[in-house]
Amino acid sequence: MDPFKGTAVAPMRRPSLWRFLLILFFLLYLLVPLLATTAFSFANRWDRSILPEGLTLDWWRAVTERRAFGAALKNTLSLSLSTMILSVLLVTPTAYWVHLRVPKAKPYVELLTILPFGIPGVVLALALIRTYARFGGNIIYSPFMLVLACMVISLPFVYRPIVSALNSVDIRALTEAAQTLGAGWFTILRRVIVPNIMPGILSGGLLVFSLVFVEFTLANLLVGPRFKTFPIYLVEFTRFDGRQASALAVMSFIIAWLTSLGLIWVAGRVGGDREEAIGAR
Q1: What are φ and ψ of residue 5, in 5° steps?
Q2: 79-138: per-residue pLDDT in tens?
Q3: How far is CA 77 from the centre of its chain?
């Protein structure tokens, strides 16, 4: 007797054709502009036919051989890394303290982190200039002020991943356990809390780095050519040669992509080491 006879088997659902077409359209919508920009940066000409005519590295060589290229890339990397590090150092202990000691303040802190979404870069730059102009141009038009301004606009992107990571673990139990062993607040934060929320910290840092790396409005209004960043350098080329500007745009994407892969790799290593340590115990 067949034990499975008479048992109703649910039919397998086939992927919807409309879902497949929607995903395909979304991928093409994202990839076609990038591929077209990349092809244009290698093309000798692309104005007489649907396909580029000839391939060359002249436009890439022209933009990278300029002295300003290295300076702009160095300035942008230092700006992005500084903003990322300072944002993480500011938000991590603040979010931890609010989460543990002042839970009633969470709505107000979240409101403050949402406000930068509604403040355009132009308004923020002009407000900073208006507020700090009394201290002289050496302060308001300095890279230091640009870092602080970038920290403001990147606040939501670093706050939400860290808060999500804090909500995923029992912070109160970890803190009380560490306190019973005689650990101080700084030791608890550094050796207990941070390792447990490291994926959230790395995710927030990645978002901040990517955002600041392509920030043009604040950099142009606050420092301009005195501290030329990669976006300012790119915009200068759009005024006289689109092929060289396309090469710079592709370079910007590649740098951001490699940085993203690097941070994801680090996050994976941290998570793997943490699982191995737990398994060893």
Answers
A1: -70, 135
A2: 999 999 999 999 999 999 998 888 888 888 888 888 887 777 788 888 887 877 777 667
A3: 13
> Are 212 and 230 a contacting pair, CB within 8 Å?
no
Report the 10 Å Cβ neighbour count for 85.
14
Rounded Cα distance, 31 and 94, in Å:
39
Q: Could you please report the per-residue DSSP string of 250-273?
A: HHHHHHHHHHHHHHHHHHHHHHHH
So where are the chain's domains? Answer: 65-276
pLDDT of residue 87: 93
pTM of the model: 0.78
Mean pLDDT across 165-194: 89
CA atoms within 13 A on the CB side of 3: 0
How is residue 191 annotated by DSSP? I
Q: Which superfamily does 65-276 belong to?
A: MetI-like (1.10.3720.10)
